[in-house]
Design a protein that fits this description.
Length: about 130
């Protein structure tokens, strides 16, 4: 009965075969021990070098990473577009135009509401509303 070797088992076999070859065993001895032909061993070794990473797995991992990064970029572009639309509607330069964060700008607006600009003195309290005479 013929058994099917998985990619992990083949990679494990090739690493083990390299260790056995370093000990002085021959390829025919290794293949006889595991019950495979020499041509199969050489074919596997050519396809899946144990020193090189599995290119298929690496490719899948990179594709997943690219998909994840594309989603992040799409979300950021959507956020940017929404902020630009809000800035157009309000007529004031938005946080993207001024370089400040949204929260910092909102806090600044609240802190400076009903206050005169820095470095100026309010004369409204010093001058009476009605002048005598």
């Amino acid at each position: 009965m013929r058994r099917r070797w998985t990619a992990d088992k083949i990679a494990h076999f090739l690493r083990e075969a390299e260790r056995d070859l370093a000990k002085g065993l021959t390829v025919s001895d290794i293949c006889r021990k595991h019950g495979i032909s020499q041509s199969m061993y050489y074919r596997w070794r050519q396809k899946r070098d144990p020193d090189k990473p599995d290119t298929d797995r690496r490719c899948r991992e990179l594709e997943l990473e690219v998909d994840r990064l594309k989603k992040l970029v799409a979300e950021l572009l959507l956020d940017k577009q929404m902020l630009q639309d809000i800035a157009k509607k309000s007529g004031k330069p938005g946080p993207a135009a001024s370089g400040r964060r949204l929260l910092g700008r909102a806090l600044w607006d609240l802190a400076t509401a009903d206050l005169s600009p820095p470095g100026t003195v309010s004369l409204g309290a010093a001058i009476p509303a009605q002048a005598p005479g």
